[in-house]
Specification:
This protein is α+β, with helices and mostly antiparallel strands. The chain has one domain (about 5-215). It contains seven helices and ten strands. It has helices spanning about 5-20, 25-40, 50-55, 120-125, 180-185, 195, 205-215, and strands at about 55-65, 75-85, 85, 90-100, 110-115, 130-135, 140, 155-160, 165, 175-180. Strands 1, 2, 3, 4, 5, 6, 7, 8, 9 and 10 form a ten-stranded mixed β-sheet that branches. Strand 8 and strand 9 form a beta hairpin. Helix 2 (about 25-40) packs parallel to helix 7. The longest helix has 16 residues, at about 25-40. The chain is globular. The model is unreliable at about 1-20, about 65-70 and about 100-105 (pLDDT under 50).
Length: about 220
């Protein structure tokens, strides 16, 4: 478990409690994730194909208004692991953040978190929780970014879009956890996150659309 996991839990417990009463099905989350990815890819701030191709894992999230909790936000999305066989079936996740995004009070924001190392993916899969601190991630390169090539690849990229505006700083951090209820409803009561990301379950209808959006 990452050293700051307990801190993330204590800071973000209220947004997660809010989410418990208003979570969407995995199917709905997948549809929103397709919309989020297509929103980035149809803009001049498209996520480069190489970023998805080299990723070890991707979390796609839509967060609600920061006004729900003072200084915080909450949302939902999916996580997928990439292997030699391609993307795994999606795992439903919930998210909470502290001042994440371009501005306080934003009504909604879309976040794509790209994990570039197996260690980053393991931090999530091993514990079912993941705290992304500001210091551990950098804004991902855009298609038109001249710095795309060369240099060491950071452990994590992030992409933000808030009310039509792209980019911005990841202030504070973001915390997300598996949405166990939604995953059980989709895959069965005895299926684990490892089963889902390891290719041991049948991918839900519509998964191919989401995979294609990232390829």
């Amino acid at each position: 478990m990452q050293p700051n996991t307990q801190l993330w839990k204590s800071v973000f417990i209220v947004p997660l409690l809010f989410l418990a009463a208003c979570t969407n099905s995995l199917s709905t989350r997948m549809g929103e994730s397709v919309s989020i990815v297509r929103g980035f890819q149809s803009s001049e701030h498209a996520i480069p194909a190489a970023v998805f191709e080299n990723a070890k894992g991707v979390a796609i999230l839509r967060e609600g208004s920061a006004a729900l909790v003072i200084g915080g936000s909450g949302g939902q999305g999916v996580f997928m692991k990439r292997s030699d066989r391609g993307w795994s079936a999606p795992v439903a996740i919930n998210t909470a953040g502290a001042s994440v995004g371009l501005q306080a009070g934003a009504q909604s924001r879309d976040i794509v978190i790209v994990m570039n190392t197996a260690e980053e993916v393991a931090n999530f899969l091993d514990d079912g929780v993941y705290g992304l601190a500001e210091a551990s991630a950098v804004a991902g390169p855009a298609k038109t970014d001249p710095k795309n090539a060369g240099g060491p690849v950071p452990a994590t990229y992030y992409y933000l879009r808030s009310e039509g505006l792209f980019g911005g700083l990841l202030v504070g951090g973001v915390y997300f956890s598996t949405a166990d209820k939604e995953n059980r409803e989709q895959y069965g009561p005895d299926v684990t996150v490892g089963d889902i990301t390891g290719g041991n379950v049948k991918a839900p209808a519509g998964s191919e659309v989401l995979w294609k959006a990232m390829n």
